Description:
mainly beta; Porin; 1 helix; 15 strands; disordered N terminus
Amino acid sequence: MIKKLLISLCLLPFFVQAQNGIEEFTFGLQYKPIISASYFNAGDESATWEDGYSSELLPRFGQSLGMVVRYNFSTTFSLETGLNLVNRRYRFTLKNSSINLDDYTTFTLRSYEFPIQLLSYVRIAEQYYINASFGNSFNVFPSDIISFGEKNDLYFLSTSRRKKMQAAFIANLGVEYRTKEKGIFYFGASFHRPWKNTARSFPEYDDGTNSFNTEAPSAEDSKYLDISGNYFTLDIRYFFSSK
Length: 243
């Protein structure tokens, strides 16, 4: 029910005629804290393997920041693009009570995002507008990641990106306050959903006597947890005035 309501709210502005009074091009800056939400399949993941080993992948606070350019090609529709740096942070645990193993490692999955989305807006008051947008995001992941346990380096984690360039569906809903002298102030929320899983994390452990998953990621029976790449953000934007 909640998902249907969110979809309806996003589509509403596309069926309502908007107002005039905006420039052809607007340029702005944005900051988007990333919120972990299991409702959007962006929460914790866990797995239990043989010999008593278990792992949990916990998304932590992250952020996206960058620039946005809006081209207003009609009184109802605009095209938005830009460039963002996205930092998603994770904590990955590895446990085995029989050998007294309880360790974790943290890592940051960094990407550069190039979004392209169609936006529509509707005026709800003299200087207030609701807008909704959807489109596609092209994301570049510069490298794979290796991180070590916080307690010792007998446990380490290798995280492999699926591809260097990946695509994702994006949707946004928000409200903006427009002024001629001071620019446009915007607050909203966005959902980012890759078309496929973003990366895989392979935990490994070897203390000389006990070993786990040491042939990962090349072995066919390697143990791993997938990183979906889904995330929900709160969006804060400021568009500069040309006056």
